[in-house]
Amino acid sequence: xxxxxSPVAPTDEQLSACLDGExxxxxxxxxxxxxxxxxxxxxxxxxxxxxAEALRLRLAPWLDEPxxxxxxxxxxxxxxxxxxxxxxxxxxxxxxxxxALGGAGVWQWQQQRGAVEARAGAGAMTAxxxxxxxxxxxxxxxxxxxxVEVGAQEEHLARWLTRRIDVPVKLFDLREQGFELVGGxxxxxxxxxxxxxxxxxxxxLRVTVYLRKPEAGTPAAFRYERxxxxxxxxxxxxxxxxxxxxxxxxxxxxxxxxxxYRQGGGKAPR
Amino acid sequence: MRxxxxxxxxxxxxxxxxxxxxxxxxFDAAAADDLAQMALERALxxxxxxxxxxxxxVWVLAIAHNAFLDGRRRDARLTIADPDELQRTQDxxxxxxxxxxxxxxxLLAALRRLSPDQREALLLVCVEQLSYAEVAEVMHIPVGTxxxxxxxxxxxxxxxxxxxxxxxxxALRRVI
Lengths: 270, 176
Known about the structure:
The complex is a heterodimer.
Chain A: H1 12-19, H2 25-37, H3 39-59, H4 69-75, H5 84-91, H6 103-118, H7 128-140, E1 150-151, H8 157-165, E2 180-189, E3 192-200, E4 206-212, E5 223-227, E6 230-237, E7 240-246, H9 250-262
Chain B: H1 5-26, H2 29-45, H3 56-78, H4 83-93, H5 107-113, H6 116-126, H7 132-139, H8 143-162
Helix pairs in contact in B: 1-2, 1-3, 2-3, 3-7, 5-8, 6-8, 7-8
């Protein structure tokens, strides 16, 4: 095979597989090292990543198209009367959290609809900031080395983010649920700013918490939504908007959302 | 025996993605829903074969993939397929560049110009975000084949989107 220390150009297949996180160990390190030294190849890989993102955004709205009743009834013989919101809410066990659904949901949907539809990747039912939370998750979670701007060990992390986004940022402790804080970063959020906290379990699976100052009148209801393999819980409480994003089963994500909620993700005094 | 409630709920949860996947196979909303319906019926008939430790979506997509191939084989038996005509149909469907020949293709048009095998692998990886192993399971191909299809699809998409292939004849002519 290749003699050691003589850099042999990786094949396009290796570059492509590396982008998809399909290379392990030494092979991955070799390809990553090659990309650091070869900006042209790195640019090509970035372009592929951008194409993939564009495809995801282009096809995301297809997920939100109403499912024909004939397909639903093929699976479920009894009539489906529940709305999509109610289904999502009851499935997530949200009564626990005193969700106020219904009117507020429709109101928000109407409010957000224009802005949301202007965004290519947005689901018609989802507020723009929630889409931004999902997008920020998708961008930073795969980053092996630059996932966060400020690491968890920096004691100024919470203060810095609190000052920047004008919302009290707490570093939630999710260790009981198996997740360690990795760190956080500051992000643009529409006209304002938002913060992203990232947590990781022992397998390297990452979830993010997105925090922002909500517009006046944003409904507070606790909501759940799935976008592809990503699950999102989001809520607004005591002057802060929260979105928890992760590729986890609903129950597991809900446990995390509840932990955040209990620790003041919503009870922060204003 | 009817499929249990949990299974039905899991199956319902896959519906939006199943429909989207079907639509990228057949590129026609009505035909896609027919395909999705067929996959659902097969899944329900074989619910006892589903191992709850596995990912329901991967399982259902694999069923849809098989149903799609079955349909394609059936159609091939019923009609004498002229590969040139098929390719022309595919090219026309793929967004006739029209007076703007040489310009970039739009994303969906570029996608449609990919060979079906490349397109499916690319979308399962990039859009459904399955691992290569899961794509291999859905498409019944080795992982190495997934890797090369995804790579070739990426390169072809780039050519279409850059416009350098807009006027060139399709590199691959598939006989279905």
